[in-house]
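Q: What would this chain look like folded?
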Amino acid sequence: MNTLHFKYAVEIEKTHSITQAAENLYMAQPNLSKAIKELENTLGITIFRRTSKGVIPTDQGLKFLAYAKQVLIQIDNMEAIHSPDKPKNSKLRISVPRAGYISKAFSEYIAEMDSPEDMEVFFCETNSLRTAENVRENGYDFGIIRYNTAHEKYFADYLSEKNLDGKLLWEYEMLAVMSAEHPAANADELSYSMLSSDYIELAQGDDAVPYVSGAMEKLFASNRPADIPVRKVCMYDRGSALDFLLTVPQSFMLDSPVPASLCGKYGLVQRKCDFSDNSFKDMLIYSAGHKLSEKELKLVNKLYEVRNEAAFVDYK
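A: My prediction, written as structure tokens:
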């Protein structure tokens, strides 16, 4: 079995076109088609089928491609093994939601790791669907997705369709996070209904749910009074969001519990907030059959460690 054919198949999946894949691979289309046919004959399966939307993988093809990508990653790792004329390279690619405990865990992991001669780390903060795409399509080692438990079935089906496995990292209730100068910072009780009525909400704005358009917005709308104007600012950068909370003290956001050290650093408070269906999960995801490497396990252990800093706190 020629592993170069794995690369060909992955490129076709990425482009949904044999013609475009052949162009990207600098080879003739007939030669590419022949190579894929040979691969299919060797495996005894059909990897791709033609549709009105282009060339897409079959169910068996999806499973093969997930393993093929892992083989290609392992080949890259083997080629990067230390030799006298080549510096040792440490590569890690992870894709995660914008969350304080995750960024803190990642920073501490980097600070504590043994410095290799050469290091390349990709840390991508993005939404859950893009994270799944990064792990499945773009060579990321693993990712973390976030969803409301009311939508768990949709995400479970989506991960299965993409041939991805998952492991629970944290189940929690969202808290209201705001500046210590916020008018409601010391209120006896807080509810999302009250906060959204009187103050500006800071949201990530990209909480897409597979197969269901607008599911998260419907969830938030059901907790918001119907007779008030929506005052929401959507941001896609965690650093900008923190700056916004401090600069606009009448703003708030719902987020997973934040480690106390970060709240102190940025002058934030976090409070319990009444919100129906307030149950969320952060899940580790990775390609089916993937075994976490030693360096990946160290990062995952750090994630659990920092999570515990925020999990076992009596919030008011």
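The longest strand covers residues 164-172.
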